[in-house]
Amino acid sequence: MQSKNLTCTEEVRVRFNETDPLGIVWHGHYIVYFEDGREAFGRQHGLTYLDIQKAGFVTPIVKSTCEHFLPLKYGETFNIVTTFINSVSAKLIYKYEIFNQQNLLVCSGETIQVFLDSENNLCLYNPEFFQAWKDKMGL
Fold this sequence. Notes:
Blueprint: E1 6-13, H1 29-45, H2 49-54, E2 61-68, E3 77-85, E4 91-99, E5 105-114, H3 128-136
InterPro entries: 4-hydroxybenzoyl-CoA_TE, HB-CoA_thioesterase_AS, HotDog_dom_sf, YbgC/YbaW
Organism: Chryseobacterium caseinilyticum
Keywords: Hydrolase
């Protein structure tokens, strides 16, 4: 049975301080763009970092990947498509695709986050609030 995946698209503009002397976005900023995508996803789908903290958990990133295909330049706008990948594990898995103004794929990547409780213990099972969110979202 294939479960549905939730997505969110956020438009962002490249700021001057994100570019290198060649006028292109420095590669390290793409991870920040992924965070912009996660934050937009959380606002749209009701799973923000504040919601997670309020439930007594934190979600550190334990893995991130990023592949670059085309450059972005100062002043350009682009779309970050963030997709939540459902898993039975107690993890937040997000895939990202960044598209330029011509809708060409600039970059893709993934992050994996785990749940730690208030005593920094790794959660092996979905926290109750997270399972309730997944149930509400039909995951």
